[in-house]
Amino acid sequence: MRGESQIWFKSYGVWKRVYDLLRKKQHELHWTRMTWLKIFGTVR
C-alpha cells in the first residue's frame, strides 16, 4: 500500500510539472498572439 501511494505521488509530481509547463506555454502563446495582432493592427 505504501509503495503504491509513493508511485501515485511521483506520477502526480510529473503530471503537475507537465501541467505547469503547458500553462506557461499557453501563456506565452497568448502573448505572442496579442503582439502579432497589435503589429498587424498597426500595419492595417
Automatic annotation (TrEMBL):
Protein name per Swiss-Prot or TrEMBL: 4725_t:CDS:1
Organism (species): Dentiscutata erythropus
